[in-house]
Each structure stands twice: as structure tokens, then as C-alpha cells.
Amino acid sequence: MSNLIVSRLGGDAALDAEKVKKTAEMLISDPSRRYVIVSAPGAAAGNVGMTDLLYLCHSSFNGNENYISIIKKISDRYSEIVAGLGIDFNVEAEISALRKSLEAGKDLDYIGSRGEYIMSKIIAKYLNWDFVDATEVIFFNDNGTIDKEKTFKTGGERLKNFERVVIPSFYGSMPGGKIKTFRRGDCDSAGALVACSVKADLFEKWSETSRIYIADPSVVPEAELVRNITYSEAIELNYVGIKVVNDDVLLMLNEAGIPLNIASIHKPDDIIITISPKLIPDIKRNLTACISGRRGFNVVHIHKYGLNKVHDFGEKLFGIFAKHHIACRHYLSGIHQMSVIIKTPIFDIRRNQILSEIQDEVQPDSLITEKGLSMVAVIGEGMGTVKGIFGKIFDAIADAGIKVQMIEQGADKLNIMIGVLDADYDNAIKALYNALIEK
Questions:
Q1: What does the pLDDT look like over 340-361, one tens digit per residue?
Q2: Domains in the chain with CATH codes
Q3: 3-state secondary structure string, the chain?
Q4: What pTM value is reported for the model?
């Protein structure tokens, strides 16, 4: 059992009174769970999510529209939760404060933050835990980036003397006290910041689902579940389209050496995914953490004799893509050729303009583009230390009759990326799963 756990609850944990009750049972079942980061009630059963209602309320008020009906929906949702919990909580006072904030001209960030603020106070009341506002423990710089130094120092000092605390997610304070919200979908950052501030032994993320598969279950229905991975592997999974947790959160927790558990709020006894700086000793798992990929890449092939002798070739070429806000996902180079792999609708829209600029800037001998490339990734810690692993990978691809379009391996030997045609994507995933996992 960990000594100090920080738990992050998603909007599903606050959908209604019954969900709050089940969540409360989970929280109090382990006295190590001392800090909980709460979201606003999510969307379910025909209800609009609370944050969306608050945003709509703000825009309706500023547009001189009738916002009374929206205020009533907000009030009714919280009143229903409070009544179901059977607690003495003054929803009317909170709604009155919300109205006054709108009348005072409070900005969108402030109004949007009230969903988490009110819900956290309700949960704190039900649990009989202390409530600490996020403005007291999470801080932003003037430019809107997180002020980690102040957050870890000031926030840590503020929280260390509390036994059990409820804290809103989604927002913090700017210099001067003005409220600033995180990007939508980035509330895990609030939980990770608190975990680092109090030097937690474990950070828990309770979400709608905790299941991540070793391979795409729509391609491989029998795919096993991921149970233990490292932060480095999780970041690679994010890149290939298997969303785990935001990279910023993973990097923050990895640097602090705090493991992360991802569990289902609906099925607390379901599979838990553990992400840690290093693989947990004595836990057996496949060498390959995951086999996945992404379809629909474009490839730009630039051929120019003596390319390797042109000192500013890369600067000119990548400068063109940067100007159009296009990220070059991968690139492969040789003495006379460079292939740039990109995935963005911007390229399809500006294709002719970009190719014309490349022609003018670098004056290639030939310039060819291709569509319909998939990048399939085999990800796993220590793959580069095992003899024969890459032979297995390419034998599996060859035996499936798939032509490899390109190959890329990371310097850390954590993954290998194989380019195949979109039409071969499913067969490539199946072949690799059969060769590396089933056998």
C-alpha cells in the first residue's frame, strides 16, 4: 500500500449522486488517498456537460440573450446531486454568486471554472474533507504557462498540513490572482501538479475506461490488455494514436519518479494500467508493449545530387514546412535524397504552394509526393538489446506478403516504425501480433 495517493476524478465521477456515492466509497476505502482532484459533472443521459453549460451561459449573457434558462439548468443539476447525497449545501448561494460574477463582467475562464469549484465543494461536504481552492495551489506565469516552481513550493506548503483534501481541477491563478483555466481535456495536469507538490507515492487517474490494448482490438479482437508500461512507452503510444495521458503529464510524473495508475471509475475492480519510470520488478510481460500505428500519411520525396554537401539544405526545407505550421513527423535521408513524412490536412490544402516553394528554395532534381502511407510501430523497452527481434519483425511482414516502404528506428531503441501502404495496415498489425505476442 502506498503511503500517499493523489486521485484525479474525471467528469464521469460526478455525473449524479449515485456516482458520487460510489466514488466516495472508493476514496475512503484506502486512507492513503488523501488528495482528490475533482472535475465538473460531465455529459450523460441527455445532459450537457457543466463546463459547456457555463460557457453557454457566459456567451448568452454577453450577447444579451435570455440566459435565465441556462442558469436554471445549472442550478437544477447541482440541486439534484445535493438532494441525492442528502447533505446540507446551499446551491442557491453558489448560483447567486455565479449571477453576480456574470453581472460584474467576469471573463470566460472565471465563469468556466465554477463547474469544478462548486462540485469540489459539494464532494468535500459529502466526504467531510477539507476544501482548498485551486487558486491557492496551482499557479501560472504571465505568459500562461504553468509556474511549476511556485506551484511545487507554495502549493506544497499549503497542502502539507491537511489530512484529506478536495481540490478543483481545470484552473489555477495568474500573477495578481486572476483565474486561468487549462485547455479542455488537460485537467490531468492539475492532478499531476498536486501529486508533485505533495511528493505523492502514487498518482491515480480514474477515468471512463482504463483499457488499452496491445494491438487495435478492431483489427485484432483477441488482443491482450496493456497492464504495465513505462513513461517512455506511454509517450510513444500517444504518438501512434493510442491516447494514454497527455505528454506533459507523463513527463512531469516521470521526472518526479511518481508512478501513475489508470483505473475505470465505473469498474474499480477492472484492469488497472500502471505507468512507471521503469518496469516494475518481478512483473512478467511481453517484450513488446504495443503494436499500433496511424494511417493516412503523405510523403514528399526530394532528390538532389550532392544533397549531403549542401550545408543549409535541411534549414531551407524544414523552414518551408514550419512556415506553414506543418510538423514533419518523420524523415529519412541519404546522400542524394530526403523523404519527409507528414500527416495534416493543411498539406492537402496547400500542396501546390508548398511544392512550389520547395522547388524555388532547394531546386531539387526531382520532387515527388505520395499519399496513403501507414506507419506501423512496434514499441517496447529493451527491444534493441534482444537478439533476433528485428528479424522476427521483418520475417512476419515478409511472410504476410507486405512490401515495406520505409524503416525508421529511434536512437533509444524503444521502437521501430515501418512504413506500409494503407491497404496493408491491418494485415501488418495482425502479422506482427501473431509473431511477437501470440507466439
A1: 999 888 998 999 999 999 999 9
A2: 5-208 (3.40.1160.10), 290-438 (3.30.2130.10)
A3: CCCCEEEEECHHHHCCHHHHHHHHHHHHCCCCEEEEEECCCCCCCCCCCHHHHHHHHHHHHHCCCCCHHHHHHHHHHHHHHHHHHCCCCCHHHHHHHHHHHHHCCCCHHHHHHHHHHHHHHHHHHHHCCEECCHHHCCEECCCCCECHHHHHHHHHHHHCCCCCEEEECCEEECCCCCEEECCCCCCHHHHHHHHHHCCCCEEEEEECCCCCECECCCCCCCCCECCEEEHHHHHHHHHCCCCCCCHHHHHHHHHHCCCEEEEECCCCCCCCEEEECCCCCCCCCCCCCEEEEEEEEEEEEEECCCHHHCCCHHHHHHHHHHHCCCCEEEEEECCCEEEEEECCHHHHHHHHHHHHHHHHHHCCCEEEEEEEEEEEEEECCCHHHCCCHHHHHHHHHHHCCCCCCEEEECCCCCEEEEEEEHHHHHHHHHHHHHHHHHC
A4: 0.85
